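Subgroup meeting minutes
Present: P.N., E.W., G.H.
Scribe: E.W.

1. P.N. recapped why we're keeping a running log of single-chain structure predictions: easier to compare across weeks, and new members can see raw inputs and outputs side by side.
2. G.H. added today's entry (315 aa).
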Amino acid sequence: MTGMMARWGFYGMVLVLAAVWAAPTGAEVVDRIVAVVNDEVISQSELEMMIKSLQFRPGMESKAQDKAFQREILEALIDQKLANAEAKRRGLSVSDKELEAALEDFKQQNRLKDDAALQEALGKAHMTLSELKERIRGQILQDRLMAVVLGPNLPSVSESEVRRIYETEVPKEKGTRVHLKVLTLPAGASPEQQEEARKKAEALLREHKEGADLETLSRRHGLSLQDLGAMAEDDLAPQLAGFLRKLQPRQVGVVQSPQGLQLVELVSRRTGSETRSYEEMAPRIRQALQRQEMGKRFGEYLKTLRQKAHIKIML
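Output recorded in log:
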């Protein structure tokens, strides 16, 4: 994927709302302007926030310092500025009631149990509630602009294409597959450091039993959290596989690994006999293919906005 198509397809992954989890760490960013889009600017801190939000995704952490990757994110932010400005020009708006409903949906999707959990997340991200609401408002405006530009008719998807995706991409492995999340405590070399890590793991486990999920523990204590996705149980080390068989879905336990002590959550367990049928999966596959095609068409529309805009990049 190249050019505008690549930028828009990538932007579909770079959700503005994900920046809530990009809590600054280490030295403060010295802010400067990295791009001008008509009468708006994109700052270095805004770019850094988006990059940090992506580091929580598997395989993304190593890309943070890559210049080409940074440029890709910047291009996505430029597209966002153009789309939101065009939505406002067309008179599209979001009511306060709609915004509050979207905020509640955001809290549920991110497992923020109450307003206190939301405020804690915002504090770690150095973001106010008003700033979060503006990001949500911008995302809704962008979705509405897409609906206006592309019209109400969804792209058609052939039955053969849906069937091909089902046959080639829906897992059908026999045996048990487990979905894991892992929270890692740094390894210590000395017996004293190892004992300290053990006590820390026990304290984290108590916090989890009191209601804190691994995402919350990761943010609260600055620990690395990885979502390993689904994998075949047969591919795991026998000791780990045996440990996981003692857990029920959503339970968390502590294991020792070469990286140090780890809190491991068994998110789900699925056997080969539970493979989802074509009839169950076809509507989801069709919807995903339609969204993909709409993203491509909207990317072509964004090309026209770029041609009329004043854009200056200083990255």
